[in-house]
Amino acid sequence: MTSESIQGFKIFPLMFSANCTSCHNVFIKEHTVRTHDEQKPSGLTLFVLNIPPYATEAGLKNAFSNVGKIKRIILEDTAEDQRGDGFKRAFIVFNNRESLLKALKLQKLNPISSDIRPVKVGLEKWIEEYNKGICNPEELQEEINTFMAKYDEGNQNQKEETLEDEEGWTLVTKTGRRPGLSRKESLENKLNDKSQKATKKKELKNFYTFQIRESKMKNIVDLRKKFEEAKQKVQLMKQARKFKPY
């Protein structure tokens, strides 16, 4: 069977299995780009278009198994395909240039499903995908335990016991990341002086607060005393009939 060509692509009929009578055409050519891409290197990469939805990486390895070892297969959805029918494109990277040239000279492709690497489709594929989506409780619990152990260890390493003085300064104690490291004497003296000044300032502030409170109480007492005196004066004026409010 001789493959046809169109716009630089060679056309190959791709069968699902050896017993399958129908096939699907795919288009292949060497992948060349101006910029270097480590994942899709020039001279080693085969570009394949119009790959059917049921094809997998294992299936493409079956199709090109006669040309040489494959390093990687990058299977992508076709971005320009707006039909949503699941057709894909692939970049097949071979280990050497000879394998790529041999792939371009092929006359036909192997079926994508073989006895060694069968490709599951239909109900069998859906069941497998569903089972893969179910989380294993033991594996999940082990993953959670590992994560929490790392989290607790990180917190333990970063934990520092801190105190704040009255001015908002943070005093770091010796139980931080390096508990064996003691402070210098000059630093200790500065911290002690600052703590003593803060204590005196607090005491002075409290004294002023007490003085203001006492002053307010005295004013209230004086006002009440004057009010009572005024009431008594008004009462005496009423009794003497000399009260003239107007």
Description:
With 246 residues, the chain is of the alpha+beta class. It has a domain at 4-133: RRM (RNA recognition motif) domain (Alpha-Beta Plaits), CATH 3.30.70.330. Helices cover 42% and strands 19% of the residues. The chain has helices at 57-63, 97-104, 122-133, 137-158, 185-239, and strands at 4-6, 9-15, 23-30, 45-51, 70-77, 88-94, 162-164, 170-172. A hairpin with a 2-residue loop joins β1 and β2. The longest helix is centred in the C-terminal third of the chain and has 55 residues, at 185-239. The chain is elongated. The model is unreliable at 175-182 (pLDDT under 50). Belongs to the RRP7 family.
List the helices and strands and how they pair.
Elements (H helix, E strand, L loop, with lengths): L3 E3 L2 E7 L7 E8 L14 E7 L5 H7 L6 E8 L10 E7 L2 H8 L17 H12 L3 H22 L3 E3 L5 E3 L12 H55 L7
Antiparallel strand pairs: 1-2, 2-3, 3-4, 4-6, 5-6, 7-8
Counting helices, strands and paired strands, the structural category is alpha+beta
Helix fraction, binned, reads: 40-55%
Largest sheet: 6 strands, antiparallel
Q: Under the CATH scheme, which class of the domain at 4-133? A: Alpha Beta
Low-confidence stretches: 175-182
Order of helix and strand elements from N to C terminus: EEEEHEEHHHEEH
The chain-level mean pLDDT equals 77
Terminal CA distance reads 130 Å
Number of helices: 5
Q: Please give the oligomerization state of what you see.
A: single chain
Largest sheet strand order: 1-2-3-4-6-5
Region (Disordered): 178-198
Protein name: RRM domain-containing protein
Biased composition (Basic and acidic residues): 182-196
Family: Belongs to the RRP7 family.
